[in-house]
Each structure stands twice: as C-alpha cells, then as structure tokens.
Write a structure and sequence with these properties.
Shape: elongated
Number of helices: 8
Helix content: 25-40%
Number of strands: 9
Strand order of the largest sheet: 3-2-1-7-8-9
Strand content: 15-25%
Distance between the termini: 18 Å
Order of helices and strands: HEHHHEHEEEEHEHEEH
Bound molecules: adenosine-5-diphosphoribose
Structural class: alpha/beta
C-alpha cells in the first residue's frame, strides 16, 4: 500500500469536518471530457456560445450548441466509482459536503446529499422573464430556444461566462472553507476563479488538503497529499483503505 494513500486515509479518519471539492476531472470517466488539459473541450470548441452576451443576442444559435454538448452528449453520462465513493464517504460520516464546479448532477445521482453546485446545474431551466425554474424533461428542448409559459426565454440554470456565482452556493462554500479541517480536491485544474479560491481559503486557515488528479494542477503545490491518478482508482482505493464499501 503506498505511503501517500496511507497518509490520505489517515487524514480522512482524523478529520472532524471533511469537504470534497470537485471539478470536471471527476466526471471524465463518466464520458464527459474536461474543459482544459489533454482532450479539453475548450481546445476543440470556442466557448463564445456560452458567454451571456452572446446567448442573449443569439439565443437560438447558442441553444443549438448548448443542447448538442450539454444535453444530447453529456446528458447520457452516468455516475462513476468516484461519485459513488464520495457518496459512501458521506453516508459513513467521513464527508460533510461536496462543492462541485460541475453542472452534470452526477454527485446527486450517485447518492451524495449535501452537494453545493458552485456553477449551477444543467438539470433546471430558468425563465429570464418571470424567474420560474423548471426541471429539464424529455420535451423541454423540442423547440429552440425553449420558452416559458409566460413567453420568456429559458436559460440553463448554470452560470455562463460573464455571470456571477449563485449567491447561496457562494455563501455555503465560504462556510465550508471556514469550517472544514480537510479538503479533498478531485479533478480540478484550479484555473477558474472564484471557485478555485475555496480550497485555498481552507488551506490558509490550516485545513489539510488531499488532491486527486492524474496531472499536477494549481492545487498541487499546496497539497499535503497528492494522489496522482484517475479519480475512480484513487477514490476506490481510499474507500477500501477506510474499510468502506463503494
Ligand atoms: N480523474 C481526475 N482528474 C482528471 C481526470 C480523471 N480521470 N482526467 C482529467 N483530470 C483533471 C485534469 O488533469 C484537470 O486538472 O481534471 C482537471 C480538469 O480541469 P478543468 O477542465 O479546468 O476543469 P475545472 O477545474 O472543473 O474547470 C472549472 O471551468 O469552464 C469552466 O465552468 C467550467 O466548471 C468549469 C470550470
């Protein structure tokens, strides 16, 4: 059993309040590519279509791209062993919450209950006229751009470039950064503000930081333990080391 894994398991056992912070990398083994790094979505697709100004000016074209990428393709993804492992840690009382930058709902589908969606969720549509939120269903995107019953334009309930972080998610994340004595950072490049500040705030207060990533990231220099490898492998090994079932 390697030294880093033993150290990470010990930190999880000793933690009073552990929080997970996940990025696109935790969903890569569910078939959703990361945004950056090898095979990153933004290296193949210009993200302009998901900038809020473009969306408001060209809703039909923006929605055509959004539907193709975030619903037709990614929408079929299923949780992987890393998502299930985090849910098992929470169920065993070893993890208090998951702060995720992802909009894919896979943590909730795996059974995690305390999930803070820092960038919102693709599972809801928001009316820009009346503010009504509705769950995405099979017929939601039959006509583009989708319209609310009030006639208003519907937008996916995740943040676009140029939008602010949902206030409630921001506050709850700051609370976790203030209370946690351990952050488990999985699959994030640490490039996107203000999300990537959350683990740093906790670390600066004295929380320990475990990172899981096949490649070094902006978090690696401040990690107490760096488990280099894919999320499913490292999380499954941690679960096993803690005597839990994934
Ligand atoms: N397991 C764990 N990590 C992985 C795996 C894997 N199997 N495969 C890749 N990774 C890592 C990459 O090495 C990279 O560090 O996942 C990270 C993905 O980085 P990004 O694509 O930048 O994802 P993230 O940090 O979540 O980006 C933040 O950028 O475009 C915005 O809103 C979008 O939420 C996203 C935000």
């Amino acid at each position: 059993m390697n030294e880093a894994l033993a150290r990470a398991a010990a930190l999880l056992r000793e933690a009073r309040h552990a929080t997970a912070f996940t990025g696109a990398g935790v969903s890569v083994e569910s078939g959703i590519p990361p945004f950056r790094g090898p095979g990153g979505l933004w290296s193949r697709v210009d993200p302009a279509f998901i900038e809020i100004g473009y969306f408001l000016e060209h809703p039909a074209e923006s929605w055509r791209r959004i539907k193709g990428i975030f619903y037709d393709h990614f929408g079929q993804a299923q949780p992987n062993a890393a998502h299930f492992g985090l849910a098992a840690l929470e169920a065993a009382g070893r993890l208090r919450s998951v702060i995720t930058q992802n909009i894919d709902d896979l943590h909730q589908q795996a059974g995690s209950r305390e999930v803070i969606e820092f960038h919102g969720s693709s599972r809801w549509l928001l009316c820009l006229e009346c503010g009504r939120r509705e769950a995405v269903h099979a017929g939601s995107l039959a006509a583009l751009p989708p319209r609310c019953g009030c006639g208003g334009l519907l937008k996916p309930d995740f943040i676009f470039f140029g939008e602010g972080i949902p206030e409630k998610s921001l506050q709850r994340s700051y609370q976790e950064a203030a209370q946690a004595d351990l952050f488990l950072v999985i699959g994030s490049s640490g490039e996107v503000q203000p999300a990537c500040q959350i683990p740093v705030l906790a670390r600066n207060r004295g929380a320990k930081l475990i990172e899981i990533n096949p490649h070094p990231s902006h978090f690696t220099p401040i990690a107490d333990v760096f488990l280099q490898g894919p999320a499913t492998k490292a999380v499954s090994e941690l679960i096993k080391e803690l005597g839990l079932r994934n």
